[in-house]
C-alpha cells in the first residue's frame, strides 16, 4: 500500500536494562510510543537500515529464510546474549534488490544460516516489534555518501510504495559516538562530551521546530553542523530517511520521543 | 631466537619466546579460492600468488612447531580495552557479514586459556583495560579465522585471539599505536612467564582502498578483473614492504601515520605494531613471501624470524 511510518532509533544492548539508568528508561519508553504508533497505523512490514551492518561491494538486503540464533555481543560478551528469530519477507527483499539494481545500485540478497545480525537491529526489533511483523534489513553502504544514500532510498521507496502492505521504515543509528573507553557503572552512564551534549540538544531543537525552508536542507545542515564531532556514519541515516519521503525532503518537524546515553554515545528515538 | 622484552623464567623451567611473527592479511577470498572442506561456497581458484605465499608460511610453522599462535584481528573491534579469547574451545559457523557469498566457514579452535589469562593479567599490570572472553557461544570474527586457516589449516595448534581496541580510530594514530605498543609488551611478558614458544600473527592488509562494486558478480575469482586500486596505493605498499624487508622499523613507524592516511592502511588497527613491539622491534629484515591484490587492496604476506 504505502510507507505509513518512518522512525529513527538508536539501539545498544544497554537498553535491555532500563532499570539501571533513567536515560535508558526514557529511550525504551520512546520505543513503546513508536510501537503504539505502528499499531495504530496497522504496520504490516518493517524495513530496517542499520549503520552497524555494513556493505562495501554494492547493496545488501536480508532475505534469510531461517534468520535465528543467539547473538553474543562482541563487546559485552560476558553479559549480553541475545536469542533472535526474525520473520523475514524474502519476496520484499528480492523486490528491493531488483529496484535498487534498476536504479543503478546493484547488490545481493543474503539468505545464509548463521548470518550475524548486528546488535542494534536485534535490540531495536525486540523493542519495536513484539508481534513479529515480517521484516527485511538493508545494509549501510560505506561508499554511498549522503546524496547517493538518498538516491538509493528514493529508488527503494518506489518499490515499497508499490506493495500492498503498510510499511514502516526504520533507520537505526546513534547520533554522537563518543563511547566511554573505560569500564563504567551503567547506572552512571551519560552522554560524553560537552560539545556532543550541545549537539544533541541542538539536533533535537532543529528537527522539532524547523520550518519548511529549514526542513528542506535539514539533512545537510545537521551533517555540516556535526563536523569535527564523532558521529555515526556522518549522520547518513538522515539522508536515508529523507530519501524515503515522496518529495525527497523532510516535510514536517519530527516528534522526538527521547534522547539518552548509550555507553557515552548518544541515542535518539524519534518519529518522523 | 627473538628476545622478548622480559625473558622471565616460566614455572615449566624455560623462558617463553616468540619464535616468529607473520603479517597475515585476511581477505576471505583466499579461503574461498582454496575450497577447503570447512567453507561452504565453492570456487574455481584465484589469487594463487598470495595462496602460494601462505603455503610457504604453513611449511615454516610446521618447522617451528610452536605451542601457540596468537592473532590480533581488526574485525573484532572493541570499545573498552583489549579483549582476549579465553575459553577452552570455540566452534561454530562464521559467516562474513560483508562477503557472505564467499565465506561461510565451520570453525573449531582450541584456546590456550592459561596464556590468554596471563595476557589479561599483564595488561592490567601495565594499566591497560583488558577483558577475557569466556563465553563459549561467542562467534569468532572472520579476520581471526581466515588468517589462522591460511597459516595452519589443520587447526592443530592452540590459539589466542586478541581484539583490536578502537583507540587508533577513536583517538588518533599516536595514542592508538602507543596503546598497541603497550599491548605488545604485555603480550611478550605473558609469553615469557608462561613459557610458551609462540608465533604472533598480525591479521592486516596494507593499503585498504578497494572496489565498491563486485567486478564480476558471476565469478568473484575472475582474475582478469583483479588489480591494485591505484598506482599511488601500490607505491605506498612497495615503500612500506621495502622498509620492513630492510628492517628499518624506525622509518616505518615514522611514516606509519601518513601511510594510514594516504592508503587507508588496515595496519592502522594496530596488529602490526602490537606484533613488532612484542618482538622487541626486530633489527633484522622481514622475509616477503608474496604480495597481491584482493578487490584492489594491497596484501603482503611477510615473516619475521631470526636469520
CATH third-tier fold name of chain A: Protocatechuate 4,5-dioxygenase, Chain B
Rg from alpha-carbon coordinates of chain B: 18 Å
Tell me, briefly, the overall form of chain B.
globular
Mean pLDDT of chain A: 95
Please state the second-level CATH architecture of chain B: 3-Layer(aba) Sandwich
CATH homologous superfamily annotation of chain A: LigB-like
Write up what this structure looks like.
The complex is a heterodimer of chains A (272) and B (307). In chain A, 35% of the residues lie in helices and 25% in strands. Chain A is globular. In chain A, helix 2 crosses helix 4 and helix 4 (146-161) packs parallel to helix 8. Chain A has helices spanning 22-40, 90-102, 119-128, 146-161, 194-209, 212-216, 218-225, 236-243, and strands at 2-9, 45-55, 59-62, 67-72, 81-86, 107-110, 135-141, 166-172, 255-262, 265-271. The two termini of chain A are 19 Å apart. In chain B, the strands form 3 sheets. Chain B has a 6-stranded mixed β-sheet, with helices on both faces. In chain B, strand 9 and strand 10 (297-304) form a beta hairpin. Chain B has 9 helices and 10 strands. In chain B, helix 3 crosses helix 6, helix 6 (173-194) crosses helix 9 (271-278) and helix 7 runs antiparallel to helix 8. Chain B has one domain (17-304): 3-Layer(aba) Sandwich (Protocatechuate 4,5-dioxygenase, Chain B), CATH 3.40.830. Mean pLDDT of chain B is 93; it is low at 1-12. The radius of gyration of chain B is 18 Å and the shape is globular. Helix content of chain B is 36%, strand content 22%. The A-B interface holds A 53-58, 70-72, 74-75, 77-78, 81, 106, 108, 110, 112-116, 118, 139, 141, 143, 179-183, 230, 263 and B 76-81, 83, 92-95, 97-101, 104, 129, 131, 133-135, 137-139, 141, 163, 166-167, 170, 210-214, 217, 295.
Amino acid at each position: 500500500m504505502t510507507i505509513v511510518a518512518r522512525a529513527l532509533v538508536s539501539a545498544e544492548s544497554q537498553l535491555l536494562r532500563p532499570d539501571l539508568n533513567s536515560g535508558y528508561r526514557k529511550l525504551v519508553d520512546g520505543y513503546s510510543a513508536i510501537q503504539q504508533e505502528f499499531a495504530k497505523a496497522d504496520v504490516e512490514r518493517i524495513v530496517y537500515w542499520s549503520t552497524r551492518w555494513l556493505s562495501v561491494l554494492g547493496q545488501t538486503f536480508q532475505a534469510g529464510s531461517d534468520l535465528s540464533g543467539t547473538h553474543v555481543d562482541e563487546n559485552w560478551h560476558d553479559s549480553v546474549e541475545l536469542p533472535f528469530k526474525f520473520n523475514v519477507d524474502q519476496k520484499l527483499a528480492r523486490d528491493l534488490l531488483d529496484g535498487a539494481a534498476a536504479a543503478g545500485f546493484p547488490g545481493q540478497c543474503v539468505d545464509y544460516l548463521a548470518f550475524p545480525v548486528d546488535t542494534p537491529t536485534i535490540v531495536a526489533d525486540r523493542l519495536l516489534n513484539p508481534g513479529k511483523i515480517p521484516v527485511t534489513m538493508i545494509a549501510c553502504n560505506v561508499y554511498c555518501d549522503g546524496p547517493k544514500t538518498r538516491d538509493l532510498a528514493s529508488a527503494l521507496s518506489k518499490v515499497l510504495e508499490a506493495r500492498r502492505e503498510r510499511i514502516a521504515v526504520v533507520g537505526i543509528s546513534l547520533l554522537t559516538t563518543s563511547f566511554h573507553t573505560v569500564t563504567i557503572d551503567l547506572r552512571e552512564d551519560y552522554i560524553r562530551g560537552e560539545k556532543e551534549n550541545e549537539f544533541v540538544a541542538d539536533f533535537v531543537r532543529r528537527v522539532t521546530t524547523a520550518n519548511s525552508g529549514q526542513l528542506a536542507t535539514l539533512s545537510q545542515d545537521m551533517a555540516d553542523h556535526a563536523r569535527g564531532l564523532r558521529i555515526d556514519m556522518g549522520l547518513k541515516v538522515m539522508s536515508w530517511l529523507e530519501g524515503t519521503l515522496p518529495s525527497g525532503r523532510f516535510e514536517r518537524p519530527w516528534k522526538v520521543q527521547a534522547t539518552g546515553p548509550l555507553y557515552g554515545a548518544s541515542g535518539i528515538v524519534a518519529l518522523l | 631466537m627473538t628476545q622478548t622484552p622480559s625473558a622471565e623464567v616460566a614455572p615449566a623451567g624455560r623462558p617463553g619466546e616468540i619464535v616468529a611473527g607473520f603479517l597475515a592479511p585476511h581477505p576471505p577470498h583466499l579461503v574461498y579460492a582454496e575450497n577447503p572442506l570447512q567453507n561452504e561456497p565453492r570456487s574455481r581458484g584465484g589469487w594463487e600468488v598470495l595462496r602460494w605465499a601462505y603455503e610457504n608460511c604453513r611449511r615454516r610453522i610446521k618447522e617451528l612447531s610452536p605451542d601457540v599462535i596468537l592473532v590480533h584481528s581488526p574485525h573484532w573491534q572493541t570499545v573498552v580495552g583489549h579483549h582476549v579469547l579465553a575459553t577452552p574451545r570455540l566452534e561454530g559457523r562464521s559467516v562474513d557479514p560483508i562477503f557472505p557469498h564467499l565465506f561461510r566457514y565451520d570453525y573449531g579452535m582450541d584456546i590456550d586459556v592459561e596464556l590468554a589469562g596471563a595476557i589479561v593479567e599483564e595488561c592490567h599490570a601495565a594499566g591497560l583495560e583488558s577483558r577475557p572472553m569466556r563465553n563459549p557461544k561467542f562467534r569468532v570474527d572472520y579476520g581471526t579465522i581466515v588468517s589462522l586457516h591460511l597459516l595452519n589449516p589443520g587447526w592443530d595448534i592452540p590459539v589466542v585471539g586478541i581484539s583490536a581496541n578502537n583507540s587508533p580510530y577513536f583517538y588518533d594514530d599516536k595514542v592508538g599505536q602507543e596503546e598497541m605498543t603497550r599491548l605488545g609488551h604485555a603480550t611478550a611478558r605473558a609469553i615469557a612467564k608462561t613459557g610458551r614458544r609462540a608465533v604472533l600473527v598480525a591479521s592486516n592488509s596494507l593499503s585498504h582502498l578497494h572496489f565498491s562494486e563486485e567486478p564480476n558478480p558471476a565469478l568473484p575469482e575472475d582474475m582478469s578483473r583483479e588489480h591494485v586500486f591505484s598506482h599511488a596505493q601500490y607505491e605506498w605498499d612497495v615503500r612500506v614492504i621495502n622498509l620492513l624487508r630492510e628492517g628499518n622499523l624506525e622509518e616505518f613507524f615514522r611514516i606509519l601515520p601518513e601511510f594510514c592516511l594516504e592508503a587507508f592502511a588496515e595496519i592502522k588497527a594496530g596488529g602490526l605494531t602490537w606484533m613488532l613491539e612484542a618482538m622487541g622491534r626486530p633489527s633484522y629484515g622481514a622475509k616477503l613471501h608474496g604480495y597481491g591484490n584482493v578487490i584492489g587492496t594491497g596484501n603482503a604476506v611477510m615473516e619475521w624470524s631470526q636469520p
